[in-house]
Design a protein that fits this description.
D-Maltodextrin-Binding Protein, domain 2; five-stranded mixed sheet; 327 residues; 42% helix; alpha/beta
Length: 327
């Protein structure tokens, strides 16, 4: 048995203690539906992952797990709503890796570390460095050599100023010691379209978004941004950028679940455990791979460490590149 003093020593407080006791001893948590805020529009990759996790949590929790789509301001609107909710274990927020970019380029209304409770990392996967075949490069080394010979002449598209795809390109250029010209778009689709058309030369894309274009030969995949290779036959032979000419380069696309600050530790552990169980199922692996990512899992503390690591990474990229986003 865990006594009251031990719980209070862990910083739960009176309200947290009441919920925690119910969760551990009486099995009373949750006594009402649980809400997951998805700060993006329905139908996208984040919404897909949010709904998948909601479905897998409903049965073990014995309550409905509802998705609340709150798109706007690049995800900041929904996150702001979520972190200001009570930390009682009934509101969680699905976040993507862009969460760790935003504090370096936007003025937030919350602290990205102090005002949240990390719960679980759900997915992990790379971006793919794509090139238009007309550029005449087949490897990362070819691209670097060409960029060094013609500084600033090679363009890279992004899904928007301050997006993860923008940051990945800036990080790549800095780490490789080259100069690329950034061309921002309003979303992945137009960025892909113009890279296919040759209006831009390269683009860092999610594997799923680019799959059909790589299969058709309209785009070449030069490298992936993680130390691990992307899932699926099409990308399995694409080397990590870190092995293909830019030592130490690593940028991961991920999704995870957080709560407002103050969610009781036993509730966090319960949700983390059930997500971990769900992610080990064959169905989870297959479904997530259709979105070009793999199950992640791990403890809440491991997810907290990832958030801190990525916050520091993107802050350095923004500072080194003197990147500014107009309000």
């Amino acid at each position: 048995m865990v006594n009251r003093r031990e719980f209070l020593g862990a910083g739960l407080g009176a309200a947290g203690w009441a919920v925690a006791c119910g969760a551990r001893a009486q099995g009373s948590y949750p006594t009402q539906p649980v809400r997951i805020i998805v700060p993006f529009a329905p139908g996208g990759g984040s919404d897909f992952i949010g709904r998948f996790i909601a479905d897998k949590l409903a049965k073990p929790l014995g309550q409905s797990v509802l998705i609340d789509n709150r798109p706007g301001a690049g995800g900041l609107l929904g996150i702001d709503i979520g972190v200001k909710a009570p930390g009682d274990g009934y509101t969680f927020i699905l976040i993507a890796s862009s969460y760790c970019v935003n504090p370096s380029i936007f003025k937030l209304k919350f602290d990205p570390i102090a005002d949240i409770t990390p719960v679980a990392q759900i997915s992990q996967g790379p971006m793919v460095l794509l090139a238009n075949p007309k550029l005449g490069v087949k490897t990362v080394k070819d691209l670097i050599d060409k960029a060094k010979a013609r500084p600033g002449s090679i363009t890279f598209a992004s899904a928007g100023l301050g997006s993860v795809t923008h940051m990945a390109g800036e990080y790549f250029a800095s780490a490789a010691g080259i100069k690329l010209t950034h061309v921002p778009y309003k979303g992945t689709s137009p960025a892909l379209t113009d890279t296919i058309a040759g209006q831009t030369d390269v683009f860092f894309s999610s594997p799923a978004s680019a799959l059909a274009h790589v299969e058709s030969g309209k785009l070449l995949s030069l490298g992936v941004t993680t130390r691990m290779r992307a899932p699926g036959a099409v990308y399995s032979k694409v080397p990590p950028i870190a092995e293909a000419g830019v030592a130490g380069y690593e940028a991961t696309l991920w999704h995870g679940l957080i709560g407002p600050k103050g969610v009781p530790r036993p509730v966090v552990e319960m949700i983390n455990r059930e997500i971990g169980i769900a992610l080990k199922a064959k169905e989870a692996i297959e479904k997530l791979e259709t979105d070009g990512v793999s199950p992640a899992g791990g403890s809440a503390d491991q997810f907290a460490a990832l958030i801190k690591k990525d916050l520091a990474l993107w802050a350095k990229v923004v500072k080194d590149g003197n990147i500014k986003v107009e309000p």
